[in-house]
Specification:
Organism: Nitrosomonas oligotropha
Distance between the termini: 41 Å
Number of strands: 12
Strand content: 25-35%
Radius of gyration: 21 Å
Number of helices: 7
Pfam family, one: Gp3-like
Structural class: alpha+beta
Helix content: 25-40%
Protein name: Hydrolase or metal-binding protein
InterPro entries: Gp3-like (IPR043991)
Order of helices and strands: EEEHEHEEEEEEHEEHHHH
Length: 307
């Protein structure tokens, strides 16, 4: 196994609730009121739709707002990974990933750990550079039992709702997330910040037409059948956990470019262009913050030794 390379669930497609469009010479992300399932291939017009996109639209109506899914793992944190994440806007390279307590940051001397004060209190995060960033992997239609479609989001509502649902379903089912029949559902709401306009976020629910009790019974039956056939879910969860821990950053630089384009805008609301001057400023700021964080760590160590 190559050290430093995060081993993520194999991805065969994407699930989005928006797209990047070109307006007045600028490339801008545009939110949508339905799901789109795409392949991992792009052409000049954007991401090419996956065949399942049309199949599910025929089954669920022209507006795709419900997607039947299954999860890969029983552990909620393996299915959905959410962190505060800062990307270099010019290169797409992950720079800093934290959880509100500690972070991993790329420095000139390699990956180092520092305290993470969350974006509101971090100098490096000013200007919307750092956001909550979640990745949810799901299986659709058993096309590939260990392959998945990934839904990426920086939306607080989606991240909070999905995190809560995963923990509730895991607790209620006796930790049988991987065999529960579930569905992704698009929901809308209005807030003062959205000026009463609807905003859409993603929820995870029991499949339409099923009850919680019926879903858990089906999950137990499927789990027993898998176990009898020799399928080891616990070993799969452990392998996934070790894969995620094998490196510092889940997203590669290549993936980061697409993430920045879709979710990280500049101050004008446009997708940032590569700018060497801005990159140099970011590097200088990072160096100052890293030095400050090291000083805090050294001070804490001294205090602990004195105690």
């Amino acid at each position: 196994m190559l050290k430093g390379l995060v081993l993520t669930p194999p991805v065969i497609g994407r699930i989005t609730i928006g797209k990047v469009v070109e307006k007045n010479g600028k490339r801008l992300p545009e939110k949508d009121d339905e799901f789109t399932i795409t392949s991992q291939i792009q052409n000049k017009d954007g991401w090419i739709n996956h065949p399942l996109n049309e199949t599910l639209r025929k089954e669920h109506g022209n507006k795709l707002r419900n997607i039947p899914v299954r999860l890969l793992f029983n552990d909620p944190d393996l299915n959905l990974r959410a962190n505060y994440t800062l990307f270099d806007r010019q290169t797409g390279r992950p720079v800093c990933v934290g959880n509100g307590e500690t972070c991993r940051r790329a420095t000139n001397t390699g990956i180092q750990s520092f305290p993470c004060p969350a974006p509101e209190s971090c100098e490096l995060a000013k200007g919307g550079n750092c956001k909550p960033y979640g990745r949810l992997n799901v299986c659709i239609d058993d096309e590939d039992e260990l392959g998945s479609f990934v839904f990426r989001t920086t939306g607080f509502n989606s991240i909070r709702t999905l995190s809560t649902r995963l923990r509730y379903f895991a607790a209620a089912s006796g930790n049988l997330l991987s065999t529960l029949p579930l569905e992704l559902r698009l929901r809308g709401k209005s807030t003062t910040q959205s000026h009463r306009a609807p905003i859409y976020y993603v929820d995870l629910t029991i499949r339409t037409g099923m009850t919680m009790a019926g879903s858990i019974a089906k999950a137990k039956t499927l789990a027993d059948e898998r176990r009898a056939s020799g399928f080891d879910q616990d070993a799969l969860d452990e392998a996934a956990k070790l894969g995620f821990e094998n490196g510092a950053f889940e997203d590669s630089e290549e993936e980061g470019v697409a993430v920045v384009e879709e979710f990280y805008l500049d101050e004008t609301g446009a997708i940032p262009l590569r700018n060497p001057d801005n990159q140099e400023k970011n590097l200088k700021l990072m160096a100052k913050l890293n030095q400050k964080a090291k000083h805090i760590n050294n001070t804490k160590k001294c205090e602990e030794q004195e105690m």
